[in-house]
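FIELD: query
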Amino acid sequence: MTIGKNTQSPGAMRDRFTLIDVKPCHKAFPTPIRTLAPTLGLALSRILATVLLATLATSTLPAQTTPSGPPPSGEGFFPLNQVHRGQIATAWTVFSGTKPEPMQVEILGVLRGARGPGHDMILAQLRGTKPEYTGVVAGMSGSPVYIGNKLLGSLSYRIGQFAKDPIAGITPIAQMLEVKDMPVNTQWASASPASPLAQTETGLSSGGMTFQAMETPLVMSGFRPEAIRLWQKEMAGTGLDIIAAGGGSGSSKADTDGSFGAISPSAIASVVPGSAVSAQLIRGDLEVSATCTVTYVDPKQLLACGHPILQAGSVSLPMTTAEVVDTLASPLNAFKIINTGDPIGTFTDDRDSAIRGVLGIKPHMIPVHITVRGEGADRKLNIEVVDLPSLTPQAVLVSLYDALLQNNRSGLETSYHVTGSVNIEGYPPSPLDLWAPAGDQLSAQLSAAIQTDQTFAQLYANGARQGAIKAIELDVDSIPRRAQVELETARIDSGNIVHAGDTVVIEATLRPWQQPERNIRIPIVLPPELPAGPIRLLVSDAGTLDRALNPPRISTRTVDLDTALAEAQNHHAADRIFVSLLLPDAQAGVDGHTLSTLPLSMANALEPLRSARDVTLNGESAVVSADSPAGGVLTGFQILNLHIEPGAGLD
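FIELD: result
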């Protein structure tokens, strides 16, 4: 029997098999055996025929011709106009470990304009044991595809979910090389808010089929499930809400300058087309990273993914190697299980057809230092978060939330007091003083994280900010009780008929949560220049006082950075009780500052500016006379009436 040589293309699957006559050689056997020769010859022919038919039935792939060495490089690029159906290519990706493996790819055709006008997509089917078992895998995007030794493009898109065949879309290399030639911008990111359209998942539609960018599996190392769910809620629709199993780099050691991520030359040398690489969004004691595959490498830079992560444009993201622990097969969401590796540079561009990384340079990140205090040892977290408008506030929110969750002193009755500062280049530190008492609708941990993030976002997203965020310092005190205090009553202990210059004692009754009420006495000295007649006293919490000093305003004008910093500086502490004089004089709020007891002429001069600038005017001035600790977050206020008698005080 002989088997005819395969004369058809490998993709056509048309091997020809020719059977020739099998002649029995019975003369060499003794007579008894010769009598059985016809039967044996017929049986042997049937066995051989059965084997051939079984082989033909199970042969669904052409002979395996994928190379076994490293991915080719430096052999040029395969032109798109020479791509046609039936061509056999080779793709490289990491299924396990760090070494790329080849897999066969059969070209199905070119979809004209599938990625947009003038942006074609090559449709292909993956062949081989591993890709046919795992299907198209999240983290495979960017896997380089070669025809011969020439780079064709990268595996980047898949068709829907639950697809039975591993069919993928290839981004042509010519479109990716446009990103390679863009100017490198390593300056810190702009504070302008990102376009909402840039944050949607990348999806393409052609002929009723939906093409979707292969997900970049996001690994959140060190986060509790509640924090991961908060991240998914905040990042819904961005493509970064799909969390995969994995781990971080295993090292949170900072450099001598206090930053993380010393560049590893040996790690740079290990990167080849097909290697897995990660973009870190948070690094340090907590890590968040997105992983895809390298398509192209030269001595200075690399291209990866074949599609955007957020299409954020110029970015500054730490770029690291990655180890694939294993590849998980799933009809719904197959993904690579990743460990983040060593730093190798910075991703500087997140564009439509690729992300570009520059080797050997360090990224700009925002240091965040969190200290959680309470009974026992303090807990410290040192991290860096990405400086990117569409991600930074969410990164700060989730990191602080997780830090408060992972605290042995946390409980349903635990309250939190957050202090610290946001340090902006060119400005004095902006203070933070926020309370999150237990017992509100939100958990105290989440409330503390949201309040802190909102205060930070007002400064970070301010259009007038030009300096970089140098650092965020957060000190959190854990208080093992509901730190809620209610102002029940307030009265004037010395009587309400007084003279200018007198000392008046205010007695307030406070009721802490589920504790006995307590009385505090607050003395105030009346100004000697007070005119005779009635005057009011405001006994209040911090929120009521702040609204009296800086009334809410309806304005289309964006608050500038100086105003926002001034308002933060003048914010009153929520755990104190305040006594203020309400004087019958004009009061103005200008650029976050309160001007009390203004002369009428100045108030008239400010009146025309109310619509043009951030100016408020009020016919009554609030002047803080005294304050005292309340023992928790105070709520409530009362107005007391005094009558100023003419003449000197009679203390």
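FIELD: remark
The longest helix spans residues 37-58.
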